[in-house]
């Protein structure tokens, strides 16, 4: 946030939160979101949708109600605004008690209610603010009139971390400019960014004549167009609330902004697709099922994205080791995956570009056929040329934000961090995960400072990004790493423990078993 409570570097606040928490051992902090929105009696949108999304994403959600609507699948029949003083009472109640990771706003129906929200946010500084500038219901009912525009523009938007207007809302905020094309959505995102939010997502679901649903994400420097096939269904009531709450939930768990937005878009697409034929209510616009993931085969999802659990057993290749044992990189990668490696990185420091590219293409094929992601160490050019799933960079490699602008929103970016400051920067730059080490001394990487288990823990505590430990890790010490008691430590990355071994398959199987056992014991 800009002016309210100085949450620009929110990982620093996570650090202090963790510090207070560790006074009581075995306390587990649950990611928490506060939604400030209107109630929808039909339960498709508003507070009810927000609660369902957060529950579906594993995040606790408290709710402050700004208005009660009489609403169903046919439309909004009536709206009752809560007195601003009572909205304020609710805000005080929860903000003085909970430690919210993210506050998300939906229907803020009057300038007086926005005013009490601003006052409470200044009394109780929060970590991140997601603003869904709800103005009109999907059925066309005005939920917040033009009287709120100036307080939105002048006071709320400048403190938002992200705003998520649809094209109609973006147009209203910009004084009625026409937005009918993706190019106009980009211009709108840029103008809205000038009003102060850190990120802008202009949702193009309402754009006419498109077989795709295109959303434009702007971070102040780069635009990303997030596209997905349009789903034909009447059950679209609550998509805006669902998207914004899902962004809030993912941020609360520690995602970078772009990653949170991608997961949220994917969540909405999957929910719409799963629910396209259900019939709830007799009106034109039905709700959809937020708990589809409890019921459907996860393999049938329309989109997937980065899964932090894939960092569990991270195989990092080494050209010298595979040459020494007289095997190709592709064979080594295949054996590592068959033994249980859950993600692979090609770290071929000595390879010639042409040869590296050929090997990388073959490894992409092997990894795709096994459903395992393949990342390239350092070389963004090779990653682009072989269509790898992402890149891992260190502190002296290409900066993460530049890698992101070259690879686009869908690729995975990992960054090496030895310190809490580097971990904070990784989140700000939009990395998907952190590689932290060398945890133990290693011969694989020369002149590499060892940070120990304490250094690893500090990095984990400084960030909510998923972390994989690296450096000198093998069967004998993997358990001590996994036991450091950091919920975002997702696994170990190893080079010699897999590739400086006679049989990669056996080594991978043994290490996988050790990791599984230590997970069970935690
Ligand atoms: C998963 C993972 N973590 C850390 C590193 C180290 O990357 P970097 O600091 O860029 O050093 P090099 O690997 O390039 O020598 C990594 N490769 N993977
Ligand atoms: C690439 C890298 N980055 C930090 S330590 C390291 C090497 C890890 O290799 P090993 O698993 O053989 O110790
Ligand atoms: Mg590097």
From TrEMBL:
Pathway where it operates: Cofactor biosynthesis; thiamine diphosphate biosynthesis; 4-amino-2-methyl-5-diphosphomethylpyrimidine from 5-amino-1-(5-phospho-D-ribosyl)imidazole: step 2/3; Cofactor biosynthesis; thiamine diphosphate biosynthesis; thiamine phosphate from 4-amino-2-methyl-5-diphosphomethylpyrimidine and 4-methyl-5-(2-phosphoethyl)-thiazole: step 1/1
Necessary cofactors: Mg(2+)
GO MF: ATP binding; hydroxymethylpyrimidine kinase activity; metal ion binding; phosphomethylpyrimidine kinase activity; thiamine-phosphate diphosphorylase activity
Reaction equations catalysed: 4-methyl-5-(2-phosphooxyethyl)-thiazole + 4-amino-2-methyl-5-(diphosphooxymethyl)pyrimidine + H(+) = thiamine phosphate + diphosphate; 4-amino-5-hydroxymethyl-2-methylpyrimidine + ATP = 4-amino-2-methyl-5-(phosphooxymethyl)pyrimidine + ADP + H(+); 2-(2-carboxy-4-methylthiazol-5-yl)ethyl phosphate + 4-amino-2-methyl-5-(diphosphooxymethyl)pyrimidine + 2 H(+) = thiamine phosphate + CO2 + diphosphate; 2-[(2R,5Z)-2-carboxy-4-methylthiazol-5(2H)-ylidene]ethyl phosphate + 4-amino-2-methyl-5-(diphosphooxymethyl)pyrimidine + 2 H(+) = thiamine phosphate + CO2 + diphosphate
CDD domains, alphabetized: HMPP_kinase, TMP_TenI
UniProt keyword Coiled coil, yes or no: no
Subcellular location: Plastid, Chloroplast
Cross-referenced Gene3D superfamilies: 3.40.1190.20, Aldolase class I (3.20.20.70)
Domain Pyridoxamine kinase/Phosphomethylpyrimidine kinase: 40-283
Domain Thiamine phosphate synthase/TenI: 313-498
Pfam families attached to this UniProt entry: Phos_pyr_kin (PF08543), TMP-TENI (PF02581)
GO annotation, cellular component aspect: chloroplast
Keyword set, alphabetical order: ATP-binding, Chloroplast, Kinase, Magnesium, Metal-binding, Multifunctional enzyme, Nucleotide-binding, Plastid, Thiamine biosynthesis, Transferase, Transit peptide
Superkingdom, taxonomy of origin: Eukaryota
A GO biological process held by the record: thiamine diphosphate biosynthetic process
Family: Belongs to the thiamine-phosphate synthase family.
Known function: Essential for thiamine biosynthesis. Bifunctional enzyme that catalyzes the phosphorylation of hydroxymethylpyrimidine phosphate (HMP-P) to HMP-PP and condenses 4-methyl-5-(beta-hydroxyethyl)thiazole monophosphate (THZ-P) and 2-methyl-4-amino-5-hydroxymethyl pyrimidine pyrophosphate (HMP-PP) to form thiamine monophosphate (TMP).
Protein name: Uncharacterized protein
Organism, as annotated: Microthlaspi erraticum
């Amino acid at each position: 946030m800009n002016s309210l409570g100085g949450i620009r570097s929110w990982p620093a606040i996570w650090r202090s939160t963790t510090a207070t928490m560790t006074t009581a051992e075995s306390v587990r902090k649950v990611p928490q979101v506060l939604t400030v929105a209107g109630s929808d009696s039909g339960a498709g949108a508003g507070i009810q949708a927000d609660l369902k999304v957060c529950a579906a994403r594993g995040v606790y959600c408290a709710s402050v109600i700004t208005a009660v609507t009489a609403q169903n699948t046919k439309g909004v029949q009536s709206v009752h605004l809560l007195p601003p003083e009572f909205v304020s009472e609710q805000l005080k109640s929860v903000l003085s008690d909970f430690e919210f990771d993210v506050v998300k706003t939906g229907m803020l129906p009057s300038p007086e209610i926005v005013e009490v929200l601003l006052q409470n946010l200044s009394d109780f500084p929060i970590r991140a603010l997601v603003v869904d500038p709800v103005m009109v219901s999907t059925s066309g009912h005005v939920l917040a009139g033009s009287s709120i525009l100036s307080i939105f523009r002048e006071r709320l938007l400048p403190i938002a971390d992200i705003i998520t207007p649809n094209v109609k809302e973006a147009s209203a905020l910009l004084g009625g400019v026409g937005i009918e094309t993706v190019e106009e959505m980009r211009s709108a995102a840029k103008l809205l960014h000038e009003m102060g939010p850190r990120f802008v997502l202009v949702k193009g679901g309402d754009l006419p004549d498109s077989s795709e649903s295109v959303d434009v994400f702007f971070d102040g420097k780069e635009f990303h167009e997030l596209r997905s096939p349009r789903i034909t269904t009447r059950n679209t009531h609550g998509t805006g609330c669902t998207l914004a709450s899902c962004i809030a939930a993912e941020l609360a768990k520690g995602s970078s902004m772009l990653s949170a937005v991608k997961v949220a878009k994917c969540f909405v697409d999957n929910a719409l697709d799963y629910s396209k034929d259900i019939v709830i209510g007799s009106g034109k616009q039905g709700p959809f099922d937020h708990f589809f993931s409890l019921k459907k085969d996860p393999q049938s999802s329309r989109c997937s994205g980065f899964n932090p659990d894939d960092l569990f057993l991270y195989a990092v290749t080494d050209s010298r080791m595979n040459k020494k044992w007289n095997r190709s990189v592709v064979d080594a990668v295949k054996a590592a995956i068959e033994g249980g490696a859950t993600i692979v990185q090609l770290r071929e420091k000595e390879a010639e570009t042409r040869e590296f590219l050929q090997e990388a293409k073959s490894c992409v094929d092997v990894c795709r056929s096994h459903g395992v992601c393949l990342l390239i160490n350092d070389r963004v050019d090779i990653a682009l040329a072989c269509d790898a799933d992402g890149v891992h960079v260190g502190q002296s490699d290409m900066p993460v934000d530049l890698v992101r602008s070259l690879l686009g929103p869908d690729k995975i970016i990992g960054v090496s961090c030895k310190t809490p400051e580097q971990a904070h920067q990784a989140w700000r730059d939009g990395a998907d995960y952190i590689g932290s080490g060398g945890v133990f001394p290693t011969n694989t990487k020369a002149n590499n400072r060892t940070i120990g288990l304490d250094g690893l823990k500090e990095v984990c505590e400084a960030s909510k990004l998923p972390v994989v430990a690296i450096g000198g890790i093998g069967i004998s010490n993997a358990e001590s790493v996994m036991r450091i008691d950091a919920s975002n430590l997702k696994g170990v990355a190893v080079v010699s423990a897999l590739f400086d071994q006679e049989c990669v398959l056996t080594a991978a199987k043994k290490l996988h078993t050790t990791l599984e056992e230590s997970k069970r014991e935690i």
